[in-house]
From TrEMBL:
Family matches, as CDD domains: NTF2_like
Domain SnoaL-like: 11-133
Organism, as annotated: Solimonas marina
A Pfam match: SnoaL_4
SUPFAM superfamilies: NTF2-like
InterPro entries, per the entry: NTF2-like_dom_sf (IPR032710), SnoaL-like (IPR037401)
Xref: Gene3D superfamilies: 3.10.450.50
The protein's name: Nuclear transport factor 2 family protein
């Protein structure tokens, strides 16, 4: 009985570590935290990110600053998380809704995407990281010009999120350090 309980606890801890990896990805993407993003993939990982990448994750990560430069707002929301483990290998189907406000000249447009990540993870040296990540788009909603209104009265007095180190989280948190998992 004790061995079975220890195995269940190990699986639970591994699933939690993978869940934290997925959440760290969302945070790194939304804050344009490229240093943090690099820590989430194994060196030989693959990333399939639509028109932006299909191949070594290193190439995607090298291009990520350029890809994200026009994105004034980027907001990933994970909904359903399905994980299966087999020792130090795991797979995940991760549902998400991602909001993008993109600068185009002097205008902005919005793209809201509902989709999934098809993930493969590997635990190496005791650490779970992505070994393969592929984006699957299930639907998209666009608005041109942008419908985002950061001057809406409901937001008066609120901290306003921003990409990069200007985001209020960088000054607020002591424990949730940026650039790390």
């Amino acid at each position: 009985m004790r061995e079975d309980l220890e195995r269940q606890l190990e699986v639970l801890l591994d699933k939690q570590a993978i869940h934290e990896l997925v959440m760290a990805y969302c945070n790194a993407a939304d804050r344009h935290d490229f240093d943090k993003m690099r820590t989430l993939y194994h060196d030989d990982a693959i990333d399939e990110h639509g028109q932006f990448a299909k191949g070594p994750a290193k190439e995607f990560l090298d291009r990520l600053p350029q890809i994200q430069t026009p994105m004034a707002v980027l907001h990933h929301n994970v909904t359903t998380v399905n994980l299966k483990l087999d020792g130090d290998l795991a797979e995940g189907e991760i549902y998400l809704i991602a909001m993008h406000q993109v600068k185009s000249g002097t205008q902005h447009y919005d793209v809201l995407i509902g989709g999934r990540y098809f993930d493969k993870y590997e635990k190496r040296d005791g650490v779970w990281k992505f070994s393969h990540r592929a984006i699957v788009a299930d639907w998209a909603y666009s608005a041109d010009p942008s419908r985002i209104d950061l001057d809406h009265p409901f937001l008066a007095g609120a901290h306003i999120g921003r990409p990069g180190p200007e985001d209020p989280s960088y000054g607020f948190f002591r424990l949730l350090q940026r650039g790390t998992r």
